[in-house]
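Box 3.1 A note on notation
Throughout this textbook, protein chains are presented in two layers. The first layer is the amino acid sequence; the second is a token string describing backbone geometry. Keep the layers aligned when reading.
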Amino acid sequence: MDSVKTSSSRTLAPNSLRKMHHFALNVQDLQVSRHFYGNILALHELTGEEIPKTLRKLVAEGKVTSFVTPDGTVLDLFWEPELQPPDTNPNRQFTRANHLAFDIAPELFDEAVQVLEINQVVIDNGPISRPTGRGIYFYDPDGFMIEIRCDPI
């Protein structure tokens, strides 16, 4: 997928992206993955008011669960029961990742959108506004979805 124009005239300033905000994985069996991340790896599962407002309905429907790592990165698990199993050959590339999400200061969000547009990056969705902030979803050169998001002002 040719989603990034290589000769750009504008880029984000260094350190504009503050941290990884969350990582979303597609999983075939939500309960098995929930046990793995929550019990075996001992990550904290988000419950109640800890669950982002945008995911509460999906969590209540049993389609998503979220954990937080000790450094504050959120891991969202999206239940995809029809997901194909991984290739038995470990040398073949395989991913069940949904998207990477980077956090940016709210005052830099519009500039980030402009940089994506100027560089003709393929936008999947957005910019969108939610009670939890703003976001834009786009593709990297290999077609992997990336999100830049910010907290509400």
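The longest strand covers residues 17-27. The CA atoms of residues 64 and 78 lie 5 Å apart.
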